[in-house]
Each structure stands twice: as structure tokens, then as C-alpha cells.
Amino acid sequence: MNFRLPTVAFTALLSLASAADRSAKPETILFVGNSFMFGSGSAARYYRAETVTDLNDGKQGGVPALFKVFANQAGLDFAVSLETVGGSGLDLHLEKKADLIGRPWDRVVMLGQSMLDNTKPGDATKLVKAAKEISELFSSKNPRVDIRLVATWSRADQTYPEKGAWHGKSIETMALDVRRGCDLAAAGTPLIRAVLPVGEAWNRAFQAGVADPNPYDGIAFGQVSLWTNDHYHASTYGYYLEALVIFGDLTGLDPRSLGKTERAAGDLGISATQAVALQQVAYDELKATPGRPALREFTLVKLPR
């Protein structure tokens, strides 16, 4: 016998199938930034590069890949992409990469130049303008896009040597100055949902004795250096902490739930004790954000080897 569904029923089934397909698709997230995002100077740079999409075809993993593996261990799936150019501010991506990044992303994590402006250290003018314009680009492609801006860490090479723009000030000062610049950028457009306190998490790690605040006089026993050997870029520990803060902020999940058996730490040579200490720092910093809802615990999903 030849059974034929009524047209209305057939259309309804197609609609349900289409809805199911949409719900099965992972959220898209784009990381836009520079070497502080792609993990320059560390083992994180090419870590799990095959799990993310490098829009510049640099085959880099970095912080986006760390975020991806954290999310997978929390039972979440994101389609993660990165578009990064060393030394760049957001203005470069807007001017030279707009055709590449101008897509309807669900989420965007942006990171500006490490000194706010490499020709005028500490001056947020360029960042404020570029952050507004690039956010408008993303919003024009998806009005519901979730955009967040990362405030990065103090550079030891700009603090301890006499030639440094922050010479004579405490190591915490540059991160706080960068945070103020990012706050100005966020205040300049309602499209930026939040500023992520990565630099302040580094400051907290110094204050808690987890990380050594001065790499120029050696690393204290039992502490880690968050910088790599140029005292500028992050070490694997530093990028790990950056990724933890981003993960906790975007997902609302407690990074401490990753625990001592967290996969990326084991892959990258971070000890269980160090991983747990950095997870605690990230949690404490995120918890300190005024008005933030409580971070939710989760059960760790063990990933296949």
C-alpha cells in the first residue's frame, strides 16, 4: 500500500526536524585578539589546534583550545574559532579582518593591545573607539550576539626595567590601568556585556602566593611564573589562568569543578596541585565581581584519549 502523509502533517514533521537540527548545533564563539590569545611563548600555542578553527589558517590552539577542552569536560560543546594577529589592537581586526570576522556569531571574546595603545601606553582612546565599532560590526550580523572584553595582565617587562612604561609602580598597577581602559570601552557601547578580569586574577595569584610577582629575581619555591621567559607574554600557567577566567565567566560554571584531574593541565605539564590552585584563583576573582550570580558546580566528564 502507498501511504501518503497529509501536506499539513508532512510540513509539521519537516518543521520539527529543522528545529531539532538547530538545537543540535553548538553555539559559535569567536576569540579575537593577539599573542595574548593565541598563547605565544608557551606550550598552549598549538595545543589541540585541531579542535578549533583558526580563521587566519595559523593552526593555533591557545586560549580558545583551552576553553574548548574545559567546556567539553563540563559537558558543553562550542564551535570555537579564533582570529588573532600578534601585537594587534582591535582596530587592526576592524580595518583588515572585517570581511573574515563579520559573521553571525553567538558569542565573541575580544582582547585589545596589551598596553591599551603601544604608542601611548595606558591611553584607552583607541580601544574605546575600536571596541565600539567592532561590536557594532558583530551586532549587525547577529543583534543577539554576546560580546565580552578581556582585561589582561601586567607586563613584568614594562614594570621592573627602567625603560618600562610602568617602571616604579607596583606589579599590580598596569593590570588595574588596563582594566580601567577596558571599563571605559565597555561604557562606550551597550553591546559589550562584560569585562573579564584576567589581569586582576593574575594580581590575586600574586597576593595569594600562587605565583611569583617578580620573574627578574628568580621564582620562589612552590610558586609558578605566570610569564614566559620574555617577562611579557604568559607562560603555560598564565594562559591556563586566563582560560579558566574566560570559561567561568562565559559559562557561569565553577572552574574548581575541573579539579585535579583536569585534562589540559595534565597534557601541558601543570601539576594537580598547581591546577587546583589556579582554579581557586579564577573562582575567587570571578566570585568577587559585584552582582555576579553564584557559579554552578558540575560533574567532570572524562574525555577519551
Features:
305 residues, alpha/beta, Rossmann fold, six-stranded parallel beta sheet, 11 helices, disordered N terminus
Description:
This protein has helices at residues 7-24, 35-38, 62-73, 90-96, 98-101, 125-141, 171-187, 198-207, 236-251, 263-268, 272-287, and strands at 27-33, 53-54, 78-84, 107-111, 146-151, 192-197. The chain is α/β, with parallel strands linked by helices and 305 residues long. The chain has a single domain (26-287), classed as SGNH hydrolase (Rossmann fold, 3-Layer(aba) Sandwich), CATH 3.40.50. Strands 2-3-1-4-5-6 form a 6-stranded parallel beta sheet, with helices on both faces. The N and C termini lie far apart (50 Å). Mean pLDDT is 93; it is low at 1-22.
In total, the number of strands is: 6
Determine the number of helices (DSSP H or I, runs of at least 4 residues): 11
Portion in beta strands? 5-15%
Indicate how many domains the architecture comprises: 1
CA(first)-CA(last) distance: 50 Å
